[in-house]
Amino acid sequence: MRIKYFLPVICLFSLIQVSVANAQLKTGAWRGTLRSKSGSLLPFNFDVKNIGGKQELFIHNGAERFKVTNIQRNGDSVFIHMPLFNSEFKLKFEGQDLKGNWIKHYGDHDMLMAFTAT
Predict the structure, then answer these.
(1) Which residues, in sequence order, are bridge partners of residue 82?
(2) Which helix (H) or strand (E) holds 4?
(3) Positions of E strands within the chain
(4) What are the CA-CA distances from residue 53 to residues 32, 49, 91, 101 (Å)?
(5) Chain Cα centroid distance, residue 71
């Protein structure tokens, strides 16, 4: 009798794990904000697109667009390795938003700035 109830519970947990592991960034326009140690906000815009079965970011800097292809997801975490500036974002989903840190790697230390994106 217990096995009859055990199998549906296992299936439900498996589906939850798959949906969390495959969480994707919502495609479209995003607004990211870095917060400096002094509390200043540094906003910027970026787009998320699905291209060839993978997600890519396009960060806006005036008329320029920086393409970012190294995006990894693990559960509710997102890791974005920037192609420039020897830096990365380590983020977590909070609902539809992302929160975490931008990390700039220097030779002898790392600098962190709080980051949010909606």
Answers:
(1) none
(2) helix 2-21
(3) 28-35, 41-51, 54-61, 64-68, 70-74, 77-81, 87-94, 97-105, 110-117
(4) 24, 10, 22, 26
(5) 7
C-alpha neighbours within 13 Å on the C-beta side of residue 23: 19
Nearest in space to 98 (alpha carbons), one of 13, 8, 19, 24? 24
| Half-sphere CA count of 53, side-chain side, radius 13 A | 0
Chain segment 32-91, per-residue pLDDT in tens: 999 999 999 999 999 999 999 999 999 998 899 999 999 999 999 999 999 988 999 999
pTM of the complete model: 0.78
pLDDT score recorded for residue 23: 62
